[in-house]
Design goal:
mainly alpha; 15 helices
Length: 400
């Protein structure tokens, strides 16, 4: 990838500082948080050689959560610690991709800080859910695939990056099936470049499939299930049917087209303790969510005006991650499905500020993003606040 020592040091430092932020007061909420009700008990089954409790999704996320529980105990820290690691991996991946795409130390720092203070990464890195792990693998898969397309590297390095792209894509799908959407831009790009089709097929199809099915092997140790090796393959139909079967209404259900505003965020937790409450609200930073949409206009324009490949990938990935939910056959949608698309807004903002020559203004904008992160922090982190004061953060009735 050709990153300088200064760039690597910067990415490492910011990622470490991000981890310090993620683990602060990680023990709140004290009870399982939103979908932790599903994944934490399922993870503990791997420690007890029990049942495949959460069969609707691949097992890899639950195995990693179980590792955290094994190390730190059956308590909130143990449930969530591996999610903080996934958050750090994500933040580092954003830094590497930003450095590759924009070639600037200051822009790399800026992109990482916008991502860190966009609320989405912070909240998702503090809850034991699939999506945090999935996107951590996805962002690195994008890093490796982009690197595999750059002719400045030797042929052996290009192939190495291509195989790493396939391997990390396989891991991403092993966390959550949604990651399979990355096959579309990868295959389209590889076919258009008329590269070695054999290596492309092996790296982008065979390798992900081998890794994906390999992550199901821990199921063979669940004594109460008595799975055979061939059950690993038959389980895939059951997972697919399980995804379509989620049709029960939920108070935080939202339509995919509302996520860009956002109209209906999610209270992951809202616990009342006497005269105080502890809440965890998943909502993107308004400065990033709304100005990010404006930046997409600039990026979109440059895909036609200058045929800029970076702009094409930023715009393409954003709309791929967002609009896929318009056709995915799942009856119930939630705002957290917007997480991968929302993360791409950091890159779109960086691209827009660069192309509009707003170099000084971008730091003022970053200050505003940090201000709103601090402002929303009490309802992002689960720290105690007076019972009725949470309403001061509810700008719209649909946020309650």
């Amino acid at each position: 990838m050709g990153l300088s020592r200064k760039t690597i040091l910067l990415i490492t430092l910011v990622s470490f500082l991000g981890w310090m932020l993620f683990i602060f007061a990680l023990g709140t909420p004290l009870k399982p948080n939103f979908d932790e009700f599903h994944y934490v008990p399922a993870a503990k089954q791997f420690l007890n050689s029990g049942k495949n409790q959460n069969w609707e999704h691949p097992p890899l996320t639950k195995v990693l959560i179980a590792l955290g529980i094994r190390i730190f105990g059956d308590e909130p820290l143990g449930w969530r610690i591996m999610s903080t690691v996934a958050g750090v991996v994500t933040l580092a991946g954003v830094g590497v991709l930003g450095a590759i795409w924009f070639g600037s130390l200051s822009v790399t720092l800026w992109v990482m800080l916008i991502t860190l203070f966009n609320h989405l990464l912070y909240v998702q890195s503090r809850i034991a859910m699939l999506d945090t792990f999935m996107f951590a693998a996805m962002i690195w898969s994008i890093v490796f695939f982009w690197s595999s397309c750059q002719p400045k590297h030797t042929k052996s390095k290009l192939r190495l990056y291509l195989y790493l792209a396939g391997a990390t894509l396989g891991l991403a799908i092993s966390f959550k099936w949604f990651a399979v959407v990355l096959f579309l831009p990868y295959l389209a790009s590889y076919v258009m470049r008329k590269s070695n089709r054999l290596h492309g097929a092996i790296a982008l199809i065979v390798v992900p499939l081998v890794i994906y099915f390999g992550t199901f092997l821990p199921l063979l140790w669940l004594k109460q299930e008595n799975y055979s090796f061939w059950d690993i393959f038959t389980l895939q139909k059951l997972i697919f049917e399980g995804q379509k079967r989620v049709v029960s209404p939920h108070p935080y259900t939202s339509s995919w087209w509302t996520w860009i505003f956002p109209i209906r965020p999610i209270w992951y937790a809202f616990d009342k303790e006497g005269e105080i409450v502890r809440g965890v609200l998943l909502i993107g930073n308004p400065m990033v969510m709304w100005f990010g949409l404006l930046s997409l206009i600039v990026s979109f324009w440059h895909t036609f005006k200058s045929k800029n490949s970076v702009a094409r990938w930023i715009v393409g990935l954003f709309f791929l991650f967002w609009l896929s939910w318009a056709i995915i056959p799942r009856k119930v949608h939630f705002y957290y499905y917007y997480y991968p698309a929302g993360m791409m807004l950091s890159f779109s903002l960086a691209y827009a500020f660069l192309k509009l020559n707003l170099h000084k203004l971008k730091w003022v904008y970053l200050g505003a993003v940090i201000f709103f992160f601090v402002y929303f922090f009490p309802v992002l982190s689960g720290i105690p606040i007076p019972s009725e004061s949470f309403r001061q953060w509810m700008w719209f009735n649909s946020w309650i």
